[in-house]
Specification:
- The protein has a five-stranded mixed β-barrel with strand order 1-2-3-4-5. The protein has a five-stranded parallel beta sheet with strand order 7-14-8-9-10.
- By secondary structure, it is an alpha/beta fold.
- The model has no long low-confidence stretch (mean pLDDT 98).
- The protein has three domains: 207 residues, FAD/NAD(P)-binding domain (3-Layer(bba) Sandwich); 112 residues, FAD/NAD(P)-binding domain; 110 residues, FAD/NAD-linked reductase, C-terminal dimerisation domain (Enolase-like, domain 1, 2-Layer Sandwich).
- It is globular.
- Helix 1 packs parallel to helix 9 and helix 3 runs antiparallel to helix 4.
- It binds flavin-adenine dinucleotide and 1,4-dihydronicotinamide adenine dinucleotide.
- Flavin-adenine dinucleotide (FAD) binds next to helix 1, strand 2, helix 2, helix 3 and strand 3.
- Flavin-adenine dinucleotide binds next to helix 1, strand 2, helix 2, helix 3 and strand 3.
Length: 467
């Protein structure tokens, strides 16, 4: 029987990063992965393929609509659908192979198969080749991630009624795409197919899009998406999908009650969230505590209630984000090696990779209000930023929320081109407990969009220059 210091179950961003960090710190490490390739949801069917499709479809849209304004005359672009999907597959392949390389480089033993935990200190693997392996280990990290949340009564066939997994592999551009859920997946993948010509309607249960994001940002973003041609039906629930005919018939009704109606669609994308995935691990028999949403319960040190068993990533509480899982992977590896691993949950950026992007870190205005914290707002529009004007990409703004007494930055929100890159200077500022004045006095290169970040920080004390 092979024996290890650490066996990590799952090789998503949580699991594979944990394994690498633990190996760097001298632990003898193995990973178990039931998928044929490493990288988990993120690299195989999540972050990476969706970003490849967003990138390609954005350029298609630019060629279609923006080139002419800049004096670039090209024929109307045509989509080679097969090559479009192959571009995404190539991105997945390159990234998953990259993780396989890193496993080898860091001398991590890899087992392809499904893991279960018969007892603390033991992992059984039903290997993909039909054999079985039993591993002995001082510590087990559960990094088994999450799965698609299903809508009761609606069957996902991944061709016409799809989850994100089917939506990144549609064989043709749907005439009409109905998206259930105005969350991150719905808006990102809705954008991909809208840019390629689909008529997109998003049905959302709540009366707003992107719950959890700053409301002012979400409202502004909705208007931008509507201008792009995405239609929204907010405060509306889907009651069923009839797939007996050639066209899907989707029953919807107001969430608050009222007259039902039927919408037609060629494809329905169900994107109402994700649920933790711990099936088959044997947690119940082991007595590992889970909460009512199926998340493994841990303390601040990622310890479950069973000694020697730890959990991280989408399988535990917190935002279901790849970088959160990665940072937890590093933290638990360092803790197991006797170091002081730690994640600052107050400074986890979130990005929606649409066009323009939406990015945020820290508190929203709504959160500060409900916590009774007095705050100041500094805002600056890209319309007044030289670089954004030069590029004719002026949609959006930067918004800082700073403590009214101490000026410590509590939240930053950006909607605009490259927001997902610009948010990180705000994250670094917040990690160091910085004030809006700290950023306002930091020299920023001209002409850059980041100058709008600086100006928004200056606006907290009402001293923005270009506004
Ligand atoms: P996962 O990545 O889910 O990995 C878990 C792994 O464990 C899987 O490979 C699974 O096969 C394996 N496993 C499960 N059970 C067993 C078992 N018993 N034995 C062996 N192996 C097992 N997040 C972002 O931050 N940015 C994005 O842009 C982004 N885009 C996304 C787009 C889509 C369409 C989706 C669906 C998600 C996206 N996410 C994004 C979320 C991100 O993918 C997850 O937060 C992240 O993958 C979680 O990492 P993890 O390591 O916890 O789990
Ligand atoms: P989500 O939680 O972001 O959004 C789901 C939306 O569906 C919410 O607006 C919710 O109110 C709505 N909803 C729930 N039930 C509904 C119903 N019955 N009818 C209509 N609407 C309903 O979940 P999503 O978009 O599925 O994404 C899953 C996870 O993946 C998220 O936690 C997200 O963090 C992660 N992800 C992150 C990305 C990124 O960081 N760029 C990209 C894609 C996914």
């Amino acid at each position: 029987m092979s024996s290890y210091d650490l066996v990590v179950i799952g090789t998503g961003p949580g699991g594979y990063v944990c394994a690498i960090r633990a190996s760097q710190l001298g632990l003898k490490v193995a990973v178990v992965e039931k998928r044929a390739t490493f990288g988990g949801t993120c690299l195989n069917i999540g972050c990476i393929p969706s970003k490849a499709l967003l990138h390609a479809s954005h350029l298609f849209d630019e060629a279609n609509h923006s080139f002419a304004q800049m004096g670039i005359v090209v024929d109307k672009p045509k989509l080679d659908h097969k090559a479009f999907l192959a571009f995404k597959d190539q991105a997945v392949d390159g990234n998953t192979k990259g993780v396989a390389f890193l496993m080898k480089k860091n001398k991590i033993d890899t087992y392809h198969g499904t893991a279960s935990i018969p007892a603390a200190g033991k992992v059984d693997v039903a290997m993909a080749d039909g054999t079985a392996q039993s591993l002995e280990t001082k510590a087990i990290v559960i990094a088994t991630g999450s799965d698609v949340a299903k809508l009761p009564g609606i069957e996902i066939d991944e061709t016409r009624v799809v989850s994100s997994t089917g939506a990144i592999a549609l064989e043709k551009v749907p005439g009409k795409l109905l998206v259930v859920g105005a969350g991150v997946i719905g808006l990102e993948l809705g954008s991909v197919w809208r840019r390629l010509g689909a008529e997109v309607t998003v049905v959302e249960y709540l009366d707003r899009i992107l719950p959890g994001m700053d409301l002012e940002v979400a409202k502004s973003f909705q208007r931008i998406l509507e201008k792009q041609g995405i239609a929204f039906k907010l405060g509306t629930k889907v009651t069923g999908v009839d797939s007996s005919g050639k066209v899907l018939k989707v029953g919807v009704e107001p969430a608050a009650g009222g007259a039902a109606e039927t919408l037609e669609a060629d494809v329905v994308l169900v994107a109402i969230g994700r649920v933790p995935y711990t099936e088959g691990l044997g947690l119940e028999a082991l007595g590992v505590e889970t909460d009512k949403r199926g998340r493994v319960v841990t303390d601040h040190y990622y310890r479950t209630n069973v000694p020697g068993i730890f959990a991280i990533g989408d399988a535990i509480v917190g935002p279901m984000l790849a970088h959160k899982a990665e940072d937890e992977g590093v933290a638990i590896a360092e803790l197991l090696a006797g170091q002081a691993g730690h994640v600052n949950y107050d400074v986890i950026p979130a990005v929606v990779y649409t066009s323009p992007e939406v990015a945020s870190v820290g508190k929203t205005e709504e959160e500060l209000k409900s916590a009774g914290i007095a705050y100041k707002v500094g805002k600056f529009p890209f319309l007044a930023n030289g670089r954004a004007k030069a590029n004719n990409e002026t949609e959006g703004f930067v918004k800082f929320l700073a403590d009214a007494t101490t000026d410590k930055v509590l939240g930053a929100h950006i909607i605009g081109v490259e927001a997902g890159e610009m948010i990180h200077e705000c994250a670094v500022l917040m990690e160091f407990g910085g004030s809006s004045e700290d950023l306002a006095r930091t020299c920023h290169a001209h002409p850059t969009r980041s100058e709008a970040v600086k100006e928004a920080a200056m606006a907290v004390e009402k001293r923005a220059i270009h506004m």
